[in-house]
Structure prediction request, 302 residues.
Amino acid sequence: MNASSALRTSFDALDTVIRDHAMRKIPVARPRRMRNQLAALHDPAWDIEWQEALILLACHCRMQPARTHGKLMMLRDTRIERGEEAAFNEYMQLIRDTLHPEFITSHGYTITFSEMDAAQIFKSMGAALKPLEQLGKPFFLYAGALLGHVRNGKLIEHDDDIDIAIMLGECSEDEVAHRWLDYKNDLNKHGLIDEAEQANNRPVFKFCSDLGTEIDLFPAWTDNGKFSVYPYSLGQIDAADVFPLGTFGQDPLMLPAKPEVMLVQSYGKDWRIPDPLFHIDWKRKKNQFRKLFVADYNLRAP
Prediction:
């Protein structure tokens, strides 16, 4: 047996062990050691199979979620380019079975709406968000929550949070960060954020409610007839496509006037096709919305 054949035999044996542990949900005693063993068995000749083993091991052991999510997306793209979508779908089912009742999202390994009473959560959103009324800023369903409502009339099963846009009014891009910081201070004064959120320095605020799931608040504004909302659109939508906001039985929560326009801008022309592995390039978005990051949103700073 030559060296290449021996390497392949060792890889196949380890791959079998990883799959057996994942399918039977048997804990791996030393996951990092197994990952190192796998790393030593890589060869371009079986790169896709090696990537699948690496991803499966990471999912089974709940390791490196962000990196693993990225690798899973690249694996999907490679399989599709090679006309092997069926093979990827079969592998993806193995990942789902391995992670159940969790799933891997851009937020990590988490319980998604597929494991919750998503319909009841959706019906309760208006009441849960009612405390925001006292802050005097209109708010509307946004991003994944808006996508789920328009596409299927419910929350997306592979999602795990609810996205809400807060309308800050007419202002320039230079003013937005300060208005958004003022809004966070108002949230804090009314007891609508917890201690962890007070110390958060990101321009996405987590709103406290008894809804049983996370609610993220995003800043939105208009400037000379153009609409912007972090992180998807910076003056790329006409304000007339968003306003006036419309009701949909979840008062005081609203919908944009033409939600499809916003969804195309956010997710592209194929927004109606579900993508369980969707991920935002936050680094690129931070650069695009750099003026939103000039404020210090940490309210607990000395």
